[in-house]
Design goal:
Length: 185
Amino acid sequence: EAAHDQLLPGERSRLHRAFAEALQKDPSLAAGGNAGVDAELAYHALAAHDIDLAFSSLVLAGQRARDLFAFAEARQHFERAAELRPQVSPSVAADAPPTWELLRNAALCARYSGDSRGGAVAHLRRAIGVLGEGDDPVALGGLWAELSESWMAGLSAEAAAAFDQSIDVLGNSASRERAEALAWR
């Protein structure tokens, strides 16, 4: 760390680029071995200013942490990926999850890590704003349904309003999202 702090910004960037390349060639070099390489790779890619690699690594690290029930860590990965999403190249963006989906994952992880009122609700509101009205009514209705779950955080008036909005968006569609909204209501 002492030597790292003495490096010039360009030298630091090259050093992190070298670490990222080494991890890509041999994922077992990561502190957590092959399984934990994505989080470490994201760190070095961010420091090397490689947005595409950082974004892809953050998404994978978030999915892995979520699958391991490390919800606080997964939330951080999904939040950072959502921040980087608008900056990725078109080739990476074509296969990447949309911003609203990353925010939805961050909300889920926030809720499961105990931050329903602050993090989960804020992420869901932002995801709803990002998705927009006409893009995907089933996904939008699902986001409103998830927001209706906010009654667990003591926001019962908001939960009822979110439920109503979910049902309005979903209409009479036969979907999992509508069933969830009705169940929460």
